[in-house]
Amino acid sequence: MPKKGVTKYYLVEAGLLPEVFQKVMDAKELLQTGKCATVGEAAARVGISRSAYYKYKDGVTAFQDLRGGRILTIHVLLRDETGLLSAVLGLFARCRANILTINQSLPVNGSAAVTISAETAGMVEGVEELMEDLLSLDGVLRAEIVAG
Fold this sequence. Notes:
Blueprint: H1 19-33, H2 39-46, H3 50-56, H4 63-67, E1 71-79, H5 84-95, E2 98-104, E3 111-119, H6 127-136, E4 140-147
Antiparallel strand pairs: 1-3, 1-4, 2-3
């Protein structure tokens, strides 16, 4: 059973999934290729509502997209403690995730929000394991994948 706050992923054959997931993928492709300029246009073209698109867009990704070295963006809420950000970045280094950007807010009420984007092509550990490791660090209050 995954730890609290860790999302579990499954690799499932597309034909076994509800039709809405394939339609969301079709809409995402229309947007990425520029064949549709807006989410509303793409959703209408594939036959789903905009709300269905937004509900599932971050939760369904083509397997090929996950294999080819993608960018992962994680939002972390850290206690304002010396060395904690360094420990978080150390986890990324141990996984061989290549850090691309780090954005940190000023601490407010003893905690600071940090957004980290990393290239995942060279990772020697899975994203689930990275998230579990992040959440197990003392001082990490919350960690969630926001993109990738």
